[in-house]
């Protein structure tokens, strides 16, 4: 059954009481997939990590635990989601180990080469321009930095049927891989045998 558009819109930009409910549901529904991406990212204790589209912020504490000598930043275009992420991680935010910013992926408010790793789980569908988004993520990653990108492709017919095309854009895998290459990434791991797809890519040193 296709999800109503107003519910899908809340996943893209959560607002109000319904947005809080969606955040609660998403934190439970996608947790196993977040862990799958985090484990594949190869986090080291001193890493500075960016969670793009951090939403409810449940992943931020797990990332911080794996990088105790580094730092974790979540970024989300929804002010409500950023607020929820701060509430969920209040102690870590107060200790300076986690930070949360409100911004879209096309204009990340961070310096060039600020991060060692980046995580994007189920957010690619909402990006207005895939190429601009991946180039911006590449900009804020250090040379050799890794990106974990987890998403459903257009080959997942059940997802395509379930989510309104006006909100969710499911792309072909080869389109995403080409955009990664153009942005200066080399794939180091690609698990596309089952949906959702998980791609781990490394920023080229000469990018």
Summarize this structure as a short list of keywords or feature phrases.
single chain; Rossmann fold; 207 residues; 7 strands; seven-stranded mixed sheet; 41% helix; alpha/beta; 23% strand
Chain-wise SSE layout:
Elements: H1 5-12, H2 16-29, H3 31-40, E1 48-52, H4 58-66, E2 71-76, H5 79-88, H6 90-94, E3 98-102, E4 115-121, H7 130-140, E5 141-151, H8 157-162, H9 173-183, E6 185-191, E7 197-203
Parallel strand pairs: 1-2, 1-4, 2-3, 4-5
Antiparallel strand pairs: 5-7, 6-7
Task: Describe, in short, the structure shown.
This protein has helices at residues 5-12, 16-29, 31-40, 58-66, 79-88, 90-94, 130-140, 157-162, 173-183, and strands at residues 48-52, 71-76, 98-102, 115-121, 141-151, 185-191, 197-203. With 207 residues, it is an alpha/beta fold.
3D structure, described in words:
- A hairpin with a 5-residue loop joins β6 and β7.
- This protein has 9 helices and 7 strands, in the order αααβαβααββαβααββ.
- It starts with a helix and ends with a strand.
- The longest helix is centred in the first third of the chain and has 14 residues.
- It is globular.
- The protein has one domain: Vaccinia Virus protein VP39 (Rossmann fold, 3-Layer(aba) Sandwich).
